[in-house]
Design goal:
By secondary structure, the chain is mainly beta. It contains 2 helices and 12 strands, in the order βββαβββββαββββ.
Length: 193
């Protein structure tokens, strides 16, 4: 069976586990999925299944591909409760929140300059970033101020806390990347073996 699902971040809360410890829980609403068609090596050069994802809240359908060796019939519904169970370990992938243009102190945790001894304007400055006479330039890839966030991020090793199959909600322990429910941003949940 397919071990990848698509969801929308529904919110966060806290619950008590079986040992009495309070843990942070992220609720993910899994969207209804059905098999659209298959990709085969002879025709397309790879094996995959195309999935139709129905998002009732925004009244739209999305099509995604999942690489797999399995062959499923078109129209077959994929249910999360057949694959995911409480205690399973999953990897969650999403687009992190965009934080706009950020300096090096916020973006890369630079220390900044001294706060005393007459320093007036170098507190959050990156300081020197070039080399000496050789090569006499700033090398590519140097950490600088720039756009922060809004990148694809994967968080692995998250434990499934509970499943509500009627509402289609999976609760995982910990935080996941991505915007909240109002944005309709897709988050990918992959069961890890």
């Amino acid at each position: 069976m397919i071990s990848t699902f698509f969801a929308i971040k529904a919110g966060m809360t806290g619950k008590f586990d079986d040992k009495g410890n309070r843990v942070g829980i992220t609720s993910l609403q899994v969207l209804p999925m059905s098999v659209l068609d298959s990709r085969i090596i002879e025709k397309h050069g790879y094996k995959a299944i195309r999935i139709k994802i129905t998002d009732q809240r925004f009244k739209r359908e999305r099509i995604k591909e999942i690489r797999t060796e399995e062959v499923l019939d078109p129209g077959k519904e994929i249910k999360m409760e057949d694959v995911l169970h409480p205690g399973d370990i999953v990897q969650v992938t999403g687009i992190s929140k965009g934080k706009g243009f950020a300096g090096v102190v916020k973006r890369y945790h630079f220390k900044g300059g001294p706060r005393t001894h007459g320093q007036s304007n170098k507190e959050r400055s990156p300081g020197s970033s070039g080399s000496t006479t050789t090569p006499g330039r700033v090398l590519p890839g140097t950490r600088r101020a720039g756009h922060m966030g809004n990148v694809r991020v994967s968080v692995g090793g998250l434990k499934v806390f509970g499943i509500d199959s009627e509402k289609g909600i999976v609760s995982v322990v910990g935080s996941v990347p991505g915007m909240g429910r109002g944005k309709g941003q897709l988050i990918t949940i992959t069961k890890q073996s």
